[in-house]
């Protein structure tokens, strides 16, 4: 039986650098660079930098 291949994309969290705990969830290519983006954080009502961290499973 052949081994299961890995998916091309992975799910990641973009976490606010304002340390509010707010995050966006998105997909990116497994081989691609780490994501960072300036997006809106409703807890501080401003656009702030969001950086990638791996999506963890609830457990």
From TrEMBL:
Subcellular location: Mitochondrion
InterPro entries in the record: Mitoribosomal_protein_bL33 (IPR052008), Ribosomal_bL33 (IPR001705), Ribosomal_bL33_sf (IPR038584), Ribosomal_zn-bd (IPR011332)
Keyword Mitochondrion: yes
Record keyword Ribosomal protein present: yes
Example of a GO cellular component annotation carried by this entry: ribosome
GO molecular function: structural constituent of ribosome
Biological process per Gene Ontology, one example term: translation
Entries under SUPFAM superfamilies matching the protein: Zn-binding ribosomal proteins
Keywords for the protein's UniProt record, in alphabetical order: Mitochondrion, Ribonucleoprotein, Ribosomal protein
Similarity annotation: Belongs to the bacterial ribosomal protein bL33 family.
Entry protein name: Large ribosomal subunit protein bL33m
Native organism: Hypholoma sublateritium (strain FD-334 SS-4)
């Amino acid at each position: 039986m052949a081994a299961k291949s890995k998916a091309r994309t992975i799910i990641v969290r973009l976490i606010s650098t304002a340390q509010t705990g707010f995050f966006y969830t998105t997909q990116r290519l497994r081989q691609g660079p780490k994501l960072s983006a300036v997006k809106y954080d409703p807890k501080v009502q401003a656009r702030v930098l969001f950086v990638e961290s791996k999506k963890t499973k609830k457990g």
